[in-house]
Amino acid sequence: MGEHAMPTSSWHRTVTLRDGARVTLRPITPQDKPLLAAGFERLGEESRYRRFFTSMNELSASDLDYFADVDHTNHEAIIAVDRSSGEGVGVARYVRSSDDPEVAEVAVTVVDDWQGRGLGRALLTRLAYRARREGVRRFSAMVLGENRGALGLVDSFGEGQRQYDSGVLEVVIDLPPERGIGARLAQALRHVAAGDVVAAAGAHARHPKIGKVEANSTGGSDGDSSRHPSGSAC
After folding, report:
1. Is the predicted pLDDT of residue 3 greater than 50, yes or no?
2. pLDDT digit string (tens) for 137-182?
3. How far apart are CA 77 and CA 74, in angstroms?
4. Can you give the pLDDT at residue 94?
5. What phi, psi does 121 have (nearest 5°)?
6. Considering the domain boundaries, does residue 40 fall inside one?
7. Which among 13, 112, 141, 186 is most buried, taking Cβ atoms within 10 Å?
């Protein structure tokens, strides 16, 4: 039986980052809720707002349920765990579109003190591999249109974008068919790190036309008011 048939515990990957730090990448499980909660608390206020449109200090129980209890097919999430401390330091996830099974919204979140070390790229590379295994061919990302860097990203992609209210744009990026993340997805990741690309969690909260994820009110959460987000929580 291959990895495709055993998504929840069949694989672990140890990755050495460019500064020598070692992390384990693996599928998220419901037992990881404490790691997600602690990781969210380690996000700075600016990081929380850029990725989730909120400054809330902790995740609700329903948020944690949604983030950690995934089917690994239509909703995949990969957690990065620091080998030395056992802390959760990043998450990458996709949520498949209900309109097009070959498209999935993507979000990558890395705790502040691990940013700029290559962890986001490592997570996204592994997520892209899992996505291809599950038949996903394109990732979509939400972009804040008023941000100059975000507009440059959208202009460089040209086709494959849709506009919603309040200046939010959706950019659709083809995955390389064989391996890796490709130049465009790497470029998008750099904009994520700069805060130009909004995690799907915040987009769902503010813009219910984006995707078809049902909402669940948390009174201003990571997503803030009403949603079950597809963004990452660590």
Report:
1. no
2. 998 877 665 556 555 655 665 555 555 556 667 778 888 888 888 8
3. 10
4. 93
5. -65, -40
6. yes
7. 141
User: 103 with 140: CB under 8 angstroms?
Assistant: yes
- Give the whole-angstrom CA distance, residue 131 versus residue 110: 20
What is the count of structural domains for the chain? 1
- When mean pLDDT is compared across 101-105, 120-124, 156-160, the lowest value belongs to 156-160
Q: The dihedral of CA 32, 37, 38, 39: what is its sign?
A: positive
Q: Which of 144, 139, 136 is nearest to 207 (CA)?
A: 144
In a domain, 227, yes or no: no
Q: What per-residue confidence (pLDDT) applies to 16? A: 96
CATH code of residue 71: 3.40.630.30
Q: Give the chain's mean pLDDT.
A: 74
Residue 216 in domain:
no
CA triplet 207, 140, 195: central angle to 5 degrees? 75
Beta bridge partners of 91: 79, 109
Nearest to 27 by CA among 127, 121, 117: 127
Antiparallel, parallel or unpaired: β 168-174 and 13-16? unpaired
Host domain of residue 153 = 3-206
Angle at 92 between CA 88 and CA 93, to 5 degrees: 125
In a domain, 117, yes or no: yes
